[in-house]
User: Which sequence fits this backbone?
């Protein structure tokens, strides 16, 4: 029997004496907990359980993540955002603050909550990290210089060289 265990409301975890009823043995759950609307010390359902405030996904607002805690919750900025004040976060510009992990030759573009890396023309890859951009061998495309020329791959570019007999180089192409 619970009556043998609970002498006061405070003996029940997360419960308290009902403040609306003076001189009472009626208990209620503390804020952030749920249970019976009002219960006595001898009630078999005399328990208060945590309310998951984060179940309501709008409790924190945009750009914030909710973490349920015992009897409450905390809002923290999502990845890619920094604290502006207690209820708002602002976009973190990883490109400007140097925290973006783009390749040394890649362009960095800040987005809302994240960033993107882009390799320059003549390179291929994700643009991310030390191996993010590698030289694009344009000469693998047999038609890049035309059928009557040879192609020389350069770092980040290419050059059409050595026109076949009977052809001349006009603006990089053999005619």
Assistant:
């Amino acid at each position: 029997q619970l009556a043998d265990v609970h002498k006061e409301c405070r003996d029940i975890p997360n419960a308290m004496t009902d403040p609306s009823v003076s001189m009472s043995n009626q208990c209620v759950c503390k804020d952030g907990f749920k249970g019976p609307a009002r219960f006595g010390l001898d009630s078999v359902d005399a328990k208060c359980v945590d309310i998951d405030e984060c179940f309501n996904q709008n409790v924190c607002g945009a750009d914030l993540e909710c973490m349920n805690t015992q009897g409450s919750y905390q809002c923290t900025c999502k990845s890619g955002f920094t604290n502006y004040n207690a209820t708002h976060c602002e976009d973190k510009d990883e490109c400007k603050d140097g925290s973006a992990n783009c390749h040394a030759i890649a362009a960095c573009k800040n987005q809302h909550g994240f960033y993107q890396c882009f390799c320059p023309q003549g390179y291929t890859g994700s643009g991310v990290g030390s191996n993010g951009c590698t030289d694009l061998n344009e000469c693998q495309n047999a038609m890049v210089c035309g059928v009557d020329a040879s192609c020389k791959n350069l770092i980040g570019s290419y050059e059409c060289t050595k026109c076949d007999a009977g052809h001349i180089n006009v603006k990089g192409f053999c005619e």
Observations:
- The chain has four domains: 7-49, 53-91, 99-136, 138-174.
- The chain is about 0% helix and 35% strand.
